[in-house]
TrEMBL record:
InterPro entries per record: FAD-dep_OxRdtase, FAD/NAD-bd_sf, MnmC-like_methylTransf, SAM-dependent_MTases_sf, tRNA_MAMT_biosynth_bifunc_MnmC, tRNA_MNMC2, tRNA_S-uridine_synth_MnmC_C
Alphabetized UniProt keyword annotations: Cytoplasm, FAD, Flavoprotein, Methyltransferase, Multifunctional enzyme, Oxidoreductase, S-adenosyl-L-methionine, Transferase, tRNA processing
Lineage: Bacteria, Pseudomonadati, Pseudomonadota, Gammaproteobacteria, Pseudomonadales
Ranges where the MnmC-like methyltransferase domain occurs: 119-241
Name of the gene: mnmC
Native source organism of the sequence: Marinobacter santoriniensis NKSG1
Cofactor: FAD
Stated name of the protein: tRNA 5-methylaminomethyl-2-thiouridine biosynthesis bifunctional protein MnmC
Region (FAD-dependent cmnm(5)s(2)U34 oxidoreductase): 260-642
One Pfam match: Methyltransf_30
Recorded catalytic activity of this chain's protein: 5-aminomethyl-2-thiouridine(34) in tRNA + S-adenosyl-L-methionine = 5-methylaminomethyl-2-thiouridine(34) in tRNA + S-adenosyl-L-homocysteine + H(+)
Region feature tRNA (mnm(5)s(2)U34)-methyltransferase, mapped onto this chain: 1-242
Residues in FAD dependent oxidoreductase domain copies: 257-600
Matching Gene3D superfamilies: D-Amino Acid Oxidase, subunit A, domain 2, FAD/NAD(P)-binding domain, Vaccinia Virus protein VP39
Cell compartments where the protein resides: Cytoplasm
Amino acid sequence: MREYNLKPPAIEAADLQWRDGIPESRQFGDVYFSRDNGLEETRYVFLQQNELPERFRALEDNDVFVVAETGFGTGLNFLATWQAWRENRPHNHAILHFVSAERFPIAPEDLARALELWPELKPLADELLSSYPPLFRGTHRLVLDGGRVRLTLFFGDVVDAWSTLTFQADAWFLDGFAPACNPDMWLDEGIRLIRRHSKAGTTIATFTAVGRIRRALQGQGFAMRKAPGFGRKRDMIVGHLPPEEAEPAQARTSGPVAIIGAGLAGSLLANNLAQRGIEVVLIDAAQKAGAGASGNLQGASYVKLGVDFNAQTELALTALNFAYQAYEPFRGRFWHPTGLLQLAWNEQESDRQTRFLDRNHYPETLLYPVNASTATDLTGVPCPFGGLWFPRSGWLSPQTICQRLIDHPRIHQRLGVEVRRLTPCNGKWHIASDGGPDTIVESLVIAAGHLTPQLIPLQSSFRFKAIRGQVTHLPEGLLKAPRAVICGEKYLNPMAGGTAVTGATFDLHNAAPHPTEQSNQENLDKLRTMLPDAFNDHPEPSGTFEGRVGFRCTTHDYQPVAGPVKDMEGRKLDGIYLFTGLGSKGISYAPLLAEYLADRLLGHPEAIPGPLQKLLDPGRMNRAKTKDNRRNTELSSNEAVK
């Protein structure tokens, strides 16, 4: 086998050779599917032996059916399962979730060629290819078929996948190359982890009949038997996990769910839950969605990736890539993927980008370096420096997309309602407000931005901070209109409706709620320093420009917060979650975190792996105890803590 030494986060693509139009792996010396009829083999070995069509038809409203697979390969098993789901799924809000791992993912052009062999799958294959992720390590979530199908695709070792992902499978496809060709995939540790992700009644099927594999599965509690194999293969093995061997099923919410805060985070979460069939009560003190920090005319999909590829960088990259997919349905209306230039605007940033490029290897579909001349061509603005070009990034109209997202029959809007108190009682949460009787729900999410700390029902102090940010609206004619977003010490967005937005200030100790001439002048001065040749002459004083102020909610470590509320002892409070602390990166982070929180609320496979979830843990926001702040924060069902 070839040796690989790619810098992170890139992952080695499958090395294919084609024989009679069939792909083979040079790494493993084996074919990806039967030469006789790969699609029929999949239908027999995995769909029929796991009784998927019958089980799909029996699903009730809001059920999730989880299929897990040990090797994604060409995606043929996934597409065949998706096709069977379309043919057999009940007419309710049940969701198919497919979880798969792949150590050597197939490059998009090879994947397209392989799937051309199956014309009947073309509509599904085209949708898969349009969302297929760039080849970088880690977890990728694809939302397909209008949200009725979700694919969690892990690029990396299968043992790493099953060690870090959170899910419970209803059916297993033990695929991948034959044990003799790829023994690592069939290690005892991998089979032990398969058992950990199974529950009562989980079924399992594999094309192999190797006795060692059957005994290993039996050793983990699976009841296994031989079945006739496909085509020329005499035998295969199938089985199930008896109830007495199973782990308890994951807890899940059936709704309704209350969300406090109708900014971009709360609106995305509300829409995500509603699309999955859950009733949502959306509460906000403002009269319309997106009135707070999400109310700017424009916002950029931007993250600053670390020089070293660590967990924080992986979370930022995963979120950014998911955001591109999440906003794609709104292209040309609220989402404008113009490309984004991260300008090397001073010596320090230039040095940082040089080290970044030296230590990492990113697919060019995500980012690549450009010189000043190319940067000028791409943006349409004279750029004195080069930088990093993100071809799929762009800008969003956050307030208008918020209002579009919450326009859904399962989202019950309570706008103009200020929440006064959150009280647990008899396993439910009572939300008292100035707008009538209490709202009573089993689960609620606080997504109230910088106002979140005053709503958390614990007598504690939290490491959140509000940072004032003022943007400046630049009229048409003031500068050479950029074609793409430019980010440096300030950002500059393309013109929209005769206005371009620049900013924002970073005012940690300024609580002024209205725009000031001083902040406008700061934005203009720093933008002119960054892009001196972008401006036409402008005699107007800065006070003639309009602007807007928003307060970002940030955390002590500048990482977002998404997950269950925890007390000072680290214990979870049942049914209450936080979704905040996104700072200036909400446009990039919010879609993935909304997907992840919806997964947690509903007990679905989770979009974010365990190591990255630790970065989001709300428990880290509790300040250390002091003599004046020691109390028992355990909630009883009859106690109002705030």
